[in-house]
C-alpha cells in the first residue's frame, strides 16, 4: 500500500515515552503495529491529524508496552541461548567462559574468568539455561541497585527520594524515568556494559526527577552530576547493540 507521508513522533504516556512512525496511507481506519524489533508504526488516512494519532498511541500504550516487552524477552532468550551455546557471556564489560559443574546443589557463580553453572545433570541444556537466567536476573538487580544507591547520594541534597527500580527487556532505550510513580526503569541488557556506562544512564534518569524534559537545564545538571556522560554514552552504544 502506497505511503503518502511519514513522520517520527514521540508522545508521553502512562507507560513512559513512546516513539512511533506515523504513516499516512490510503486506508480507512487508524492501524497500529508493533514489530519484533520493538518499533511502533501507526498508519492513518491522510486527513487524520497527527494529534489524533498521538491520542490513539496513548490509549494503546499499555498494549504497546506489553508487546515490546514480550518481543524483547524473546530476543533476550535467543541471545542467551546463543551465548550459552557459544560458551561465553559478557558481564560488566568482561567476557567470561561458561562452564558447567556436576553438583548436588544448583546455582551459578562467577569464579575467576568463568561463569560456573552448578547442576545435577550437566547434559540438561534447558536446565542449564534456566539456572543461568535466574542467576543473571538476581545478579543484575544487585548491581543496578548498588549503582542506584551510589548515584542517589548526589541527589539527596536536591530532595530526591530513592526511587523504585524496575528492570525490563527493552529494544529502543537504556532506561526511563517515571516521575509520577517515583520509578526508574533500566534495560537489563546494560549488565553487559562496564559500571561507568550503567552509572551514566542511572544519573541521566535521576536528573529527570528535577527536569522531566531534555531542556538546557537538564543537560546542565547532567554535566554537573556526570561530567563524563558523553564518553560513557559512546562507550555503551559501542559495546552493547540494542
UniProtKB/TrEMBL annotation:
InterPro entries noted in UniProt: UTP_pyrophosphatase-like, YgjP-like_metallopeptidase
Q: Kindly give the Pfam families that the UniProt entry links to this protein.
A: YgjP-like
Q: Where is the YgjP-like metallopeptidase domain?
A: 28-238
Domain of life of the organism encoding this protein? Bacteria
Q: Which Gene3D superfamilies match?
A: Metalloproteases ('zincins'), catalytic domain (3.30.2010.10)
Which positions, given as ranges, span the membrane?
none
Name the chain's protein.
YgjP-like metallopeptidase domain-containing protein
